[in-house]
Structure formats: C-alpha cells, structure tokens
Design goal:
There is one protein chain. By secondary structure, the chain is α+β, with helices and mostly antiparallel strands. About 35% of the residues lie in helices and about 25% in strands. The protein has 21 helices and 20 strands. The strands form three sheets. Strands 3, 4, 5, 6, 11, 12, 13, 14, 15 and 16 form a ten-stranded mixed β-sheet that branches. Strands 1, 2, 7, 8, 9, 10, 17 and 18 form an eight-stranded mixed β-sheet that branches. The longest helix is centred in the last third of the chain and has 21 residues. Bound molecules: flavin-adenine dinucleotide (FAD).
Length: about 575
Amino acid sequence: MASSQREAENSPARLGPLKREESWQRLGADKFDLVVIGGGVVGAGTALDAATRGLRVALVEARDLASGTSSRSSKLFHGGLRYLEQLEFGLVREALRERELMLTTIAPHLVKPVSFLYPLTHRIWERPYTAAGLLMYDTMGGARSVPGQKHLSRAGALRMVPALKRSALIGGIRYYDAQSDDARHTMTVARTAAHYGAVVRTSTQVVGFLREADRVSGVRVRDVEDGRETEIHASAVVNCTGVWTDELQRLSGGRGRFRVRASKGVHIVVPRDRIVSESGMILRTEKSVLFVIPWRNHWIVGTTDTDWNLDLAHPAATKHDIDYLLEHVNTVLATPLTHDDIEGVYAGLRPLLAGESEETSKLSREHAVARVAPGLVAIAGGKYTTYRVMAADAVDAAAVDLPGRPQPSITDKVPLLGADGYHALVNQADQLASEHGLHPYRVRHLLDRYGSMVHEVLALGEGRPELLKPLEHAPDYLGVEVVYAAGHEGALHLEDVLARRTRISIEYAHRGVDCAAQVATLVGEVLGWSKDEEKREVEVYQARVEAERESQSQPSDEAADALRSAAPEARSGIIEPVS
Ligand SMILES: Cc1cc2nc3c(=O)[nH]c(=O)nc-3n(C[C@H](O)[C@H](O)[C@H](O)COP(=O)(O)OP(=O)(O)OC[C@H]3O[C@@H](n4cnc5c(N)ncnc54)[C@H](O)[C@@H]3O)c2cc1C
C-alpha cells in the first residue's frame, strides 16, 4: 500500500468501518474529559469546540449524524428578521456574526449567500419601516459578504419574480441571507472534530449514566447495530440531544433546570420550474413567516409551527400541514402549486425551551445551558445558526468539572474540513473537470459539497470509471459520492445515504426508491453487506417511504404518526424511549 494511501486509511477524520471498531475500543478503554451526547449540530459543535481547546472528547450519536432536527431545518444561516421586529438586537447581531464567519472563514464551501424578495403590500409606511430594519440587518455583526438591500418598484419586483400575481404586491425589497445543506454541514462539523482528535461514533445510544458518589462520571452506551454495551468514563457529560433533552435528563435520575418541548415544522420541495423567479421569497403569515427558498433545481417552501407530542424520531407531516403550505404560498403565485407538484416533504421538531426555573443560566432568549448535576451539563434551544456559540457555552459550563482550566474557545478561527483551499479549487474547476472527464458544472457542484476533500472523493473513481457516472435514477449524484459516504462519512444504512449524505429522499419524486437497489449495492461493497442485508436495507427504505407517503395523506397528527411509526427501523436495536 502506498504511504499516501495508508495515511488516508488512518486519517482521523475518515469515519469508515475500520474506524468504527477502533472507536468502540477507545470508548471503553480511554478516560475522557468530556462525553458529548447527540450528533446534531449542537453536539458536533460541542465536540469540535472541546477538541480544539485541547480536551479529550467522545461524541456519541444514537442514530446517524444530523438524523434529528439538524437535517430538517429551513437550512438558513440567518439573523432572523422577526427578532428585529421584537427589538432583540443582541440576538440578531450574534446570528449575523455567525453567518459572516461561516461565509468567510469556517465553511465557505458549504454556506452560500441566498437572496429573498420581501413583497411590500402596504403603501407609505411599509417601505421605510422595512428598509430601516434591513439597514440594520445589512450592517450588524460585520455582515460584509452579502449585497445590501435593493429597492424595487412593483414592475421591478415582478421582473425579479415573474411568478408573483400582480395584485400580490405594490413593490418589493430584496435582501440577502445565507443557506447550507444542514445535514452535510453537521456531518462536516463532526468529521472536523474527529480530525482534531475527538472519538466520533454513530449508532451508539446512551442507555444509562455512571455515577461516583453524587457526581455523573460517564455514560453507558449500546451499539444499536449489534447490541454490545460498554461504559465511557469522563470528567463531564454534556447532554446535546435537542428534543430528547428531557428523556436523557430522566435517564440521569436528576431534575432538569429547564424543559424542552417540540414544535413541528413541515417543508415541501417542488421543482424549480414551478415558480419562475430569480430570488427566494419571504412572506408574512398570520403567525410567523413563510419562506420560498431556492435549493439546487428545486424550491423549498416552509414552514409550519404546531405542537408535537408524538414520536420524536419520526415526526410526520399530515395532509393538513401540506395544505397549509400550499394555501399560503398560492396567495401570491399567479399559477398555483398543487399536490401533484410536490417532489419531497420533510418534517422537523424545534427544540423549544419551556418551564425554566430561576437557577437556569440562560445566556440568551434562544438557548439555555445549565450544570444540572455535578459532572452533567445540558444545553438546548437556540437555532442552527448559533450552534458555535452554544457549543462554546456548553464547554464553558462543563469547565468546573474538568481537571484543569480549559483554554478559551477558538472555533471562530477553525475552518471546517474542506474549507482550506476551496477558493483556489473553484478557480481550477475546469482543469479538475478535464482530469477526471467530468463537466465543470459537476465539479463545482462537488466542490460545494466536499470543498477541498473533493480529491478524496474523485480518487475513488481511479481504476473504476463507472463510479464517476451519475446514479441511474438520481443523476445529480455520482457513484463515488455514495462510496465516499459509506467509507469516509460514517453512513451505515441506505437511509443515511439517501436522506442525509445526499438529499435524494426529498429531491426526487420517487424519494429514493428507484435508486435504492443501485445505492445499496455500492454501500454494501464498502460495509461488507451480504445479499440478504442489502435486500433488507432496500426493503426497510421502501417501507419508510411508503409510510411517509401514507402519513402525508392523513388529516391528523395522531393518524399520521400511527402510520409513520409503524414502519421498520433501519437501526433495529434502538431503544425508544430510552427512559
Ligand atoms: C422546521 C425547522 C426549521 C428550522 N430552520 C432553521 C433555520 O433555517 N435556521 C436556523 O438557524 N435554525 C433553524 N431551525 C432550528 C435548528 O434546526 C435546530 O435548533 C438545531 O438543528 C437543533 O440541533 P440539536 O443538535 O440541538 O438537535 P438535533 O439535531 O435533534 O440533535 C440531537 C441528537 O441527539 C441524538 N440522541 C437522542 N437521544 C440520544 C441518546 N440516548 N444517545 C445518543 N444520542 C441521542 C438524536 O438522535 C439527535 O441526532 C429549524 C428547526 C426546525 C424544526
């Protein structure tokens, strides 16, 4: 084996089958400073924050990286125009600073500017009122990487968004925010943490807490693939489980300082040509706002906001949710969208703070962090955009339980894997394309998903040119991307690849079913699946899609949940609920 190949095999950021076994051994044998529970963006961010401060960290995720809320958001890095109206300037400034850091330093390959048209509907007061807000939005938090607001007459706005009804607006203002593929971003944060030494392991569920006298001294975990269990010993444990926060709190046996409730948000995905527009849109609704967000060859339309008390792992969208979205977006569209236009639907749960007590160290209106017991910190709430700030707060809160005083957080200076060298590669896209016999457009698409790790991805096609071909029924993706997902990005099941490493499950009307067999064969080669295992993966995935489709025709949450939660789990060893 050439030394460069050996190096790649041993790369700490390579989350493949070999690393998985090695990580299991380390979880049981090493003594950690911090164990982080939950591989959403907050847990992955906390692991990265801690590792780059010089701490020994383990990150354990029960299912897949970003399989909870962090793959189901509106995918915006945004300040939140709504908070400006509520005069929450501090929150907006903090979020806009994060947006700027992502665009420039931390993840320029993954986070991109995106424009929104704000249609004006009232004469006289609305334009100056909105303009004043947007002026702050454009200047707060050092937001220099995106263009400032642009004012448009009705004719100008209609030229930008020809899909709008003439009667839907009297003029408009275009402003900018940023967007990212949330699941890929979270996975890249986790891999970056692994690069800096964190042990990152998925399909590893926390099923108990260890105690020494009155303090939490670690966790008991179960490998949900094969049922093995082991103990992880650590000076402190951080609960980053989003909507599962209360469940883990109960498992720890202690009383929490805050509670988390779940609010469901549903999005639909429609083909790009159904809404003729050069820009996204933000529309006001009675309760909140509705976004129409450009997403590759599609639009994402969302979201709803309703209480959810059912299955936390599989929130189900109902017909009612979908009707709500269609009804609201159709109020402004000249050619209305129908159910037949929908390619994909996804539902996520917002982890909202509820029932806080006074002791809670509430660092912002959006998130809360508390040392709930000696050796145990909980953090929840917040939004995707501010995960880095939350992560730093969580590690600070755990500091009293650590043997030495940790260094201050430095993640504002730590680019994610793939960021380094990205800009140069964009300039070299044509050369890279001709070296690999690909279209430059394809290489740019890959660069926005992998950054400078694109070399690792393309290297998998050396000697196997068939892997550089598009997938038969999902031509936006190449075979090498599937192989890379299983060999480097920690994907363990077909669902991980179709729903999160790629977004085939929401980008194609077949929702991944038509390419399931081809993808399963490619994944199976890397993970060593037998033909029976390959078949089971395809069947489980088909059943998931079927259950989701059926639930989306149900009138109520209860009916939709009953259908969705009856589908088999890819991770059949998961214990739910764990307490
Ligand atoms: C519809 C919607 C739209 C949104 N849009 C935006 C947006 O555009 N911009 C923005 O900034 N924010 C947005 N948000 C908010 C944002 O998505 C969330 O705040 C964020 O993703 C929460 O991340 P998390 O890590 O706290 O939770 P999660 O991503 O849910 O991660 C928690 C993890 O813990 C794991 N876990 C649970 N139990 C265990 C156990 N026993 N052992 C091990 N692991 C366990 C779960 O499997 C899960 O992966 C949106 C949210 C929703 C619902």
